[in-house]
Amino acid sequence: MELRTKSKRPGMDCYTDVYFDQCEGFSEHINDPTAYKIVLVNDGSFVVDEQGQYRMITGPVAMILNEKSNLNIVTESKVKTRTIFFKPSVIRDEFTIESLNSGKYDKFLSAVKSDNYLTDDEKIKTAITGDVKFEDDFSNSMIYQDALYLLEFTRHGSEIIYYSITTPEYDALRRLMVSIRIELDDQPDNYWILRTRHFLTSILFMVTADFYRNERQDDIYKDLLVAKVARYCWEHLEENITLSDLLKKFSVNKKTLNDAFNNEVSMTCMAYLEKMRINEAKLQLQFSDRTVSEISFLCGYDDTNYFTKVFKKLTGTTPTEYQKNMKK
Fold first, then answer.
1. Peptide bond preceding 188: is omega within 30 degrees of 0, i.e. cis?
2. Which of 21, 140, 221, 243 could form an S-S bond across to 226 if both were Cys, CB 3.0 to 4.6 Å?
3. Which stretch of DSSP H or E encloses residue 186?
4. Using alpha carbons only, what angle is made at residue 3 by residues 80 and 182, rounded to the nearest 5 degrees?
5. Tens of pLDDT along 211-261?
6. What does the longest C-alpha to C-alpha distance in the chain come to?
């Protein structure tokens, strides 16, 4: 299947190399080798296998996948995705996957030129200041600016990048993706391709200029049991999860479970669950308008006083003080 959208308008015999897919779970085309992908995941969670190590991802999250991606889902829960497939030539005709991988545009895709483009004096300056001025022939070029849109697909040495995103970021990205879907499906007038490209570049700008600052989801485990238990705890964080509940659900004894967690994260399973709850509380205190009491219940603490005690023990400050400082 070609991941492109053909015009349905009379007399408009053309197409755009942009394709939209929305589904429960992940698109069947997620590992297509002919396109870049931008994936928006709701508040579900999933575990991926990365060459024998397991990464737990919790939504909302944005994902960037290039043509080499091999997303291997081990387990998932309540995951719904919106995916934009596109070829880089949508941004600029000469931007093909082959040309971007050839090294031709490497000097555009880095804040500092690669060693191949540096003089000995520039290498010394780079080591000291971390900065080298771009050559005049492309420092003001539109090619340079357009190449920046594709920075996240080429610079990391990784085929899949995960970005934790806030609720406002999720909403903004969702609106842009819905706008693309409407343009591709309805094609209301002859400008539908132009608007599709506009919404796509708006998404790419968010990814390049904003998401890189966000903490990547780097919870990686060697033990699949730890990954599965951790995912379950994230999914049920607001519930009263007991150790006996986990032992029964995953058909494991206490020693095996705690040994697995101690080997992975240097703490017991329930200590790790408590760390998860407090980390989520910190995010809620920083980015939401909920009260401390509401956040306490959201993170699985029925007793706000006990929540405050645990929070201060792990962070050195009370939830109220933390929220006040973060709002500043």
1. no
2. 221
3. helix 167-186
4. 60
5. 656 666 767 888 999 999 998 998 889 999 999 999 999 999 999 999 999
6. 70
Judge: domain 224-327, CATH 1.20.1250.20: no
Q: How many contiguous H segments (helices) and E segments (strands) does the chain have?
A: 14, 11
Dihedral (CA of 39, 44, 50, 55) sign: positive
Beta carbons of 138 and 108 less than 8 angstroms apart = yes
State the Cα–Cα distance between residues 58 and 43, nearest whole angstrom: 7
Give CA–CA dist 160/65, Å, rounded: 5
Q: Which long-range contacts (CB under 8 A, 24 or more apart) does 312-317 make?
A: 314/274, 314/275, 314/278, 315/278, 315/282
Q: Which two tokens stand for residue 101?
A: 């991988």
User: What is the C-alpha to C-alpha distance for residues 3 and 88, in angstroms, rounded to an integer?
Assistant: 13
Rounded to the nearest 5°, which phi and psi values hold at 118? Answer: -105, 140
pTM of the model: 0.75
Q: Which of 9, 44, 40 is nearest to 173 (CA)?
A: 40
Architecture field, domain 5-91+149-213: Sandwich (2.60)
Cβ contact 78:57 at 8 Å = no
- At position 40, the amino acid (one-letter code) is L
Place of tokens 């780079």: 126
The residue extents of the domains of the chain are 5-91+149-213, 97-146, 224-327
Query: Each residue of 266-294: pLDDT tens digit?
Result: 999 999 999 999 998 998 898 788 999 99
Residues whose CB is less than 8 angstroms from the CB of residue 286 and which lie 6 or more positions away in sequence, other chains included:
323, 326
Cα separation, 151 vs 96, whole angstroms: 14
CA distance 267 to 278: 15
Cα dihedral 220, 226, 231, 234 sign: negative
